[in-house]
Every structure is written in structure tokens, then in C-alpha cells.
Specification:
By secondary structure, the chain is mainly alpha-helical. The protein contains 16 helices and no strands. Helix 1 packs parallel to helix 5, helix 8 runs antiparallel to helix 14 and helix 9 runs antiparallel to helix 10. The radius of gyration is 23 Å and the shape is globular.
């Protein structure tokens, strides 16, 4: 199986996820159980390649080199696969959230020369969703009903995930070696090395500050609007502007990181947030009103 094959990427990603809750709850009945990481990888690879049926996945573990690689030459039957998928449906949804968290780290490790631009491009999906999703969901719910809308969104996410995984499997750069190839390309740090370095804990509050503050503002946006005298309609209409500003910042932050390095820019990355969040609690607010 080629080193850049999608099946290898799926196995590596699943092995990096936290499956401890699933492993603790998992127990085989009647025979030796299959490892949940292997079962999870089979289902994810099946979704990514358009193989959704449990019977087709079972047959693929005999006929497909990629499926045999993931299954380690084991052949769980279709009843086992269907039961596993049904029993751990909630945990399976949580795994997709972890996959998104791993994706940004994977991109950062895969790209060396244009790492900043690559990470900025991946992160751009979030502000695009902020601008489009609220309006789109409200319109679909009004036209189709909220149940149909949720099913439609779930299907689109599964389809999109499959397409993206297939594209990544074909075009992702070669995996970086764990050993330094030269002085200009040091070996990537392991998780244990990061956790042992005291500098990680010194910069962690600065790195977590922005998402914590932004989340708090979003959760309290209605009381905040009432206290400032803003209308909810105006507040909702500001989301596209917020997303546009986010995209604009990503468009030049990536090249800046590639040009100057993340270490030099780190002390300044919260500067843009300091002024609005400092002005927000003041009686005059941000200095303008709708």
C-alpha cells in the first residue's frame, strides 16, 4: 500500500484520537472482540470511499488491499459492523469532532515551506461557515422544517468529509520523517516532549485566551446586545462582517508567519483583540451604535 494512501492516513488519525471512553465501554460477546480503533477506522474509510453498507465493508476486507490493511487481515462480519455502528453512534459523532481538531495539526506537520498559508487556508472554513450557515439554516428550516434540515446537513457533512478525505489521500505531501533531515528541518516534536517543556504552559493562557473570550461573547451576545442597546437584527447582520474581518486577517497572517516565523509573531497575536475587548465593558461601548 503506498505511503500516501488514504487508508494509512485514516489509521494514523484514528490512532491519535482519544478513544478511551469507547474502549472502556466496549466488550465482545461470544467471541474475542475486535479492537474499536480498527472498527472505527473501517467505518470512516468506508464513508470516505462511498462504501456505507456493512455487507460491502465485510466483503471489502477480503477483496480490497486498503480495507485488509485497516482490518489487519481480520474480517468482522456485517452484523458486528452494524451493531458497533448503532451501539456507539454518539461516540462516533464525537470522533468526527476530534478529527477536525487533528486536521489542523496534521496540515501544520505536512507543510514546511508554506506552513502558515496552509494552516490559514484550513482555518478559513470556520469564518466562511459563520457567514453562511446561520442564514442558510434559518432559510432551510423555514422551507423544509427543522427535522429535514438537520438530516440534510448531516448528509452533506458526511458527503463533504468523504470528498475531502479522498482529496487529501491523493494530494497530501509526503509525511515528514521523525528524524531531522537537516539543520533547517528539525524533527517534529512528540506530544510527550511538548508536555515536558515548561514554555508550553507559559504560552498556553495566551493561546487559549482568544477562543475562551470569543466563546464567552457569543454565549452572552443577547444580554450584551440588550445592555448596549443594540437590536438583535443588527447583531445577527454583523456576523457576515465579523466573518469577513476574520478571513481578511487569515489572508495576511499566513504569509506573515511564513516570512517572520510564529515565534516572533506570538507576542503580538492578541493585539488586535485587546482594543475591542477593552472597550466592550466601558459605558461608551465600542464608540459606535447601530
Amino acid at each position: 500500500l503506498p505511503e500516501s494512501h488514504l487508508a494509512r492516513s485514516v489509521v494514523e488519525v484514528v490512532e491519535a484520537l482519544d478513544l478511551s471512553p469507547l474502549i472502556q465501554a466496549y466488550a465482545g460477546r461470544g467471541s474475542l472482540p475486535y479492537h474499536p480503533a480498527m472498527m472505527r477506522s473501517l467505518l470512516i474509510y468506508g464513508y470516505a470511499t462511498g462504501c456505507y453498507s456493512s455487507r460491502k465493508i465485510e466483503l471489502a476486507t477480503f477483496d480490497s488491499v486498503a480495507f485488509r490493511f485497516i482490518a489487519c487481515n481480520q474480517h468482522p462480519d456485517h452484523d458486528t459492523l452494524a451493531t458497533f455502528r448503532k451501539r456507539f453512534r454518539v461516540e462516533f459523532e464525537a470522533v468526527f469532532v476530534q478529527v477536525l481538531e487533528v486536521a489542523q495539526t496534521a496540515v501544520a506537520r505536512a507543510f514546511r515551506q508554506h506552513r502558515g498559508k496552509a494552516v490559514s487556508l484550513v482555518a478559513a472554513g470556520f469564518p466562511v461557515a459563520e457567514a453562511i450557515a446561520p442564514i442558510l439554516v434559518v432559510a432551510l428550516a423555514a422551507a423544509l422544517g427543522w427535522r429535514t434540515t438537520w438530516w440534510l446537513i448531516a448528509g452533506l457533512l458526511i458527503l463533504l468529509a468523504g470528498v475531502l478525505l479522498a482529496l487529501l489521500g491523493r494530494h497530501v505531501p509526503g509525511r515528514p520523517s521523525l528524524e531531522a533531515g537537516s539543520a533547517d528541518e528539525p524533527a517534529p516534536w512528540t506530544r510527550a516532549q511538548v508536555l515536558r517543556d515548561r514554555r508550553f504552559y507559559l504560552i498556553l493562557p495566551a493561546l487559549m485566551g482568544a477562543p475562551f473570550i470569543a466563546t464567552a461573547v457569543f454565549f452572552h451576545q443577547v444580554p450584551l446586545a440588550e445592555s448596549k442597546g443594540w437590536t438583535l437584527a443588527w447583531l445577527a447582520a454583523s456576523f457576515p462582517a465579523f466573518a469577513a474581518a476574520h478571513l481578511l486577517s487569515l489572508s495576511f497572517s499566513g504569509p506573515l508567519i511564513d516570512g517572520f516565523g510564529a515565534r516572533r509573531l506570538l507576542p503580538w497575536h492578541l493585539t488586535s483583540l485587546s482594543w475591542p475587548y477593552w472597550r466592550l465593558p466601558s459605558p461608551m461601548g465600542l464608540g459606535w451604535r447601530p
